[in-house]
Amino acid sequence: MDGLNEMPQKKQITTVDFIDLSVITPKIMEIAKKAGTYIRQELDQLLESHIETKEENSLVSYVDQNAEKLIVEGLSSLIEDAGFITEEATIDQSQTKYWTWVIDPLDGTTNYIHKIPVFAVSIGLLKDGIPVAGVIYHIMADECFYAWQGGGAWLNGQRIYVSKTSEIKDAVIATGFPYKRENIEELVLTLKKMILIARGIRRLGSAAIDLAYTACGRFDAYYEGSINAWDVSAGIIIVREAGGIVTGLYGEEEPCFTGHILAANPSIHSALRLIIKK
């Protein structure tokens, strides 16, 4: 979907632009869990014939598409005239609205197809292009991570915070690899550097879960060089509300549409960014 890495245009504020995020976030959670239940129920029904290649090394199934329709239907009644940016494009895409839902109905489709139990529903809400609420539902673990601007970050009702690891040598860092094998040399060089300086490197295959785990301190940081808005919109606000710093790899303050991301606790974020920059 061309153009989804561009920042939305601003519009004049109206009365509908004032939304109580503390009220709407639990409703997003209900919708995410409903979609998660459907995805889990379909896990053993999925056949090879149901799987399509969307683009190079990127797979999709009817489960992704149906889950997205379910989510869109549920969210459509929550905010009048909100736009949608969704991975499967089951609804007209719009990034010019003041409020915009950003949806990945099944983040970690390859894991799902191979029955690796690491995949999630990710729903982010943007206000004028900035993430202000987000829900990540780690389906097989029944873990719901959520946050709204000014309300803190939470996991199944418990407040969460980023780690306090102060040195990269003690850090566990998550990353992801792009479907397209462009710029592979830079990817390998950065990965090699991280392997040499960090305690451990992890690749789960779900950017949403990588961000959720960073928010609750299981990971100390997460970076990725080729990513989409629907992968990270929910995670950005969750990490920030958990006390972390989220930028683009080159320091961009709002990385939702940059195509790359770095999330970490405040003690190691700057040092990691300098390493990646080199």
Structure, described:
With 278 residues, the chain is an alpha+beta fold. The chain has two domains: 15-159, Fructose-1,6-Bisphosphatase, Chain A, domain 1, CATH 3.30.540; 168-277, D-Maltodextrin-Binding Protein, domain 2, CATH 3.40.190.80. Helices cover 31% and strands 24% of the residues. It has seven helices and 14 strands. Strands 3-4-5-6-7-8-9 form a seven-stranded mixed β-sheet, with helices on both faces. Strands 11-10-12-14-13 form a five-stranded mixed β-sheet, with helices on both faces.
Reconstruct the topology from this structure.
Layout: H1 21-42, E1 51-55, E2 58-61, H2 62-76, E3 83-86, E4 99-107, H3 109-113, E5 120-127, E6 130-138, E7 143-148, E8 153-155, E9 158-159, E10 172-175, H4 184-197, E11 200-202, H5 207-215, E12 221-224, H6 229-241, E13 245-247, E14 261-264, H7 269-277
Parallel strand pairs: 3-4, 10-11, 10-12
Antiparallel strand pairs: 1-2, 4-5, 5-6, 6-7, 7-8, 8-9, 12-14, 13-14
Helix pairs in contact: 1-2, 5-6
Can you tag this structure with a few keywords?
278 residues, 7-stranded mixed beta sheet, alpha+beta, Fructose-1,6-Bisphosphatase, Chain A, domain 1, D-Maltodextrin-Binding Protein, domain 2, globular, disordered N terminus, 5-stranded mixed beta sheet, 31% helix, 2 domains, 7 helices
